Input
Amino acid sequence: MARASLHIDLGALCANWRALDALSGSSVRTAATIKADAYGLGADKAGPALAAAGVRDFFVAIAEEGASLRRALGAGPAIHVYGGHMAGDAAAIRGAGLIPMLNSIEQMTRHFEILPGHPFGIQLDTGMNRLGMEPVEWAAVAELALGQNPVLVMSHLACADEPDHPMNAHQLHVFRDLTDGIAVPRALSATGGVLLGPAYHFDMTRPGIGLYGGRPFEAAQPVVRLSLPVIQARELAPGETVGYGNTFTAQGPMRLVTLASGYADGILRALSGKPMLYHGTVACPLVGRVSMDLLTVDVSALDTVPQALDLICPAQGVDALADMAGTIGYEILTALGPRYARSYSGGAKG
Output
């Protein structure tokens, strides 16, 4: 079968949530951010596994994601929408029982007029200039908004993956200045903020990338294994070239295999000639360019031609690939394409 296999360890996912929950402290609710289809790994599987592990609060990016997640979770867990209440979202918000994080006076007005009494939260901009009400807006509407009983007031850290960055302390100061004294639960931190310590935890944390095995949570268990099947093997003589542009030339006799995956499957073209693929503990170099559907790998170090090789595995995680491609682990995960045969193991007991 010329279809690559993407295996997701739900036990490791849940173990990572438990570890971040423990770091957040016993008085803090630890949510789970599973936007972008659980960072490309399948929210319909990740959501129920995390709920069984104890997650009671989930965050998604848009209302449509929230409605889909509600179908997977059923009634019970809260589902918050970072993007707030956009025009046309009312039916999804009402029907799925979503909690929009209102980002502007416009969204607040829309929500109060169309869905009066429906739960909502508030997102404040503390310096990232991406989403949320700016301090002057919040000052103008805080009394009105708080009078409608929001369930959460939150902001988002811009530089939490750099613990010594001065922006962290600045945003913490701004958030406290805007919210100290309110009788509403508060949230500031995703994975990086959890690791910054208790001052950043408030009443709720919202880890994302750390759940899936990525930085900055260096203690995370690996969640993903990507295995690519071998389609063909060949022997190369010295001087023969490989792939588009003849970018690789064999310096001696070598055995080459062609694998069934490429940039159409999220294996970035920027990885051309950089990573290893693994047969157990044996590393085999990717040679030539990544093409749309195919990779070529030097397996001269192996005694036999393998049936498959691993690109993502404990020996080479998503962040290692991201470093080679000049990007971040988030992009590696969310780029993983729809052609992979996804399989799952483990769950709440992991």
About this structure: The chain has a mean pLDDT of 96. The longest helix spans residues 10-24. The chain has eleven helices and 19 strands. The first strand starts at residue 5 and ends at 9.
